[in-house]
From TrEMBL:
Assigned protein family: Belongs to the DAMOX/DASOX family.
Organism encoding this protein: Penicillium arizonense
InterPro entries: D-amino_acid_oxidase_CS, DAO, FAD-dep_OxRdtase
Listed name of the protein: FAD dependent oxidoreductase domain-containing protein
BP GO annotations: D-amino acid catabolic process
Cofactor(s) the protein requires to work: FAD
Amino acid sequence: MEIVIIGSGIIGLLSALTLTDAGYKVTILARDLPKDDSLDWASPWAGAAIYPHPDTGGQPLQVETFKYYWALAHRDPTSSVQVVKATEYYDDRENDDSIWYKTLVPRYRRIIAKDLPSGAKIGFTYQSMTVNPAVFLPWIKKELESRGVQFVRKTVKSLREAEHITGCRVIVHASGLGASGLANDKNMVAIRGQTMFVETDFDETSLHQGSHYTYVIPRMYTGGAIMGGVSQPGNLSREVARELRSDILHRTRKLCEGSFDSVDLQRDVKRDIVGFRPYRKGGFRLEVEGNVVHAYGFGGLGYAFSYGAAQKVREMVDSLVRKQL
Ligand SMILES: Cc1cc2nc3c(=O)[nH]c(=O)nc-3n(C[C@H](O)[C@H](O)[C@H](O)COP(=O)(O)OP(=O)(O)OC[C@H]3O[C@@H](n4cnc5c(N)ncnc54)[C@H](O)[C@@H]3O)c2cc1C
Ligand SMILES: *[C@@H]1O[C@H](CO)[C@@H](O)[C@H](O)[C@H]1NC(C)=O
């Protein structure tokens, strides 16, 4: 049985992985493909860190994803997936009751109050993973090609067009922000992000959430780290905003007290990055509609949900195929 996937971002790619695991033949149609540097898709521009999220729901999907990347980091580090120490701070809660993943992640540990940076109410550390998209996306594409997956560069105007081109009777729709057109989804919103790639030895990942959203994510194979973050819903500006660079550095210095005091914006920032997160009001969509399996709207958490979402895609494809037989 042959399945067509629209989209070659992290969601489409890992869906191809779970589908080929289950014995399906897969063709991917996509406008943008791994190694493309365009701002029209999100996946190359992520940090990316695997941070489970306390408040979004979809916990089983995040658990499966955590386990997938954990195993991959140990099985094949050339994938760019690496285990790192993660630190999270929050200023919008008094205790860690909402941190449901404290019993999932290895080496979870609360940070005592006197060691918290100013402004943080709680903090904790554990072992998590980072992914370097510039390495991982081509790596997974190669793995899929060795399983016979065909990649076709194609912009489709409708879901039907994908069916006509390939003759496939089951369609997986993973087009990210493309869903506003292809699924006529009025709830899609692009959330603008801006980060900078900084030369540094810092090799842990840290995150602050609550009144601001700030993070540092080391990138394997590079000698540097991504610093962010910025979250601007509906802002489609593709230009780097110079004024945000010093704001980001100021916040990451507070986040990792002492670690970036000598970072110089002129000298050490090797690249500024702008990207658009495919956010969906009301939450991500994993749902069957006719002969289409929708899988999009993961906002700023596409990597953290990716493998769990892809497993769910395979289950939905199985149920459609059983119905059609
Ligand atoms: C600055 C930044 C930092 C981030 N950091 C993290 C992080 O640390 N951790 C994390 O989990 N997530 C992070 N994210 C979010 C993550 O990048 C996204 O959630 C994820 O990449 C979405 O993947 P996707 O496959 O749904 O969509 P995309 O990567 O956007 O892929 C969509 C695919 O559909 C194709 N497509 C669209 N329309 C059409 C069409 N009409 N015809 C054919 N093909 C089409 C595109 O070409 C592309 O191949 C970050 C995002 C940004 C911008
Ligand atoms: C979009 O964001 C940039 C960078 O912060 C800012 O300069 C610009 O004014 C914003 N545009 C809109 C329409 O809000």
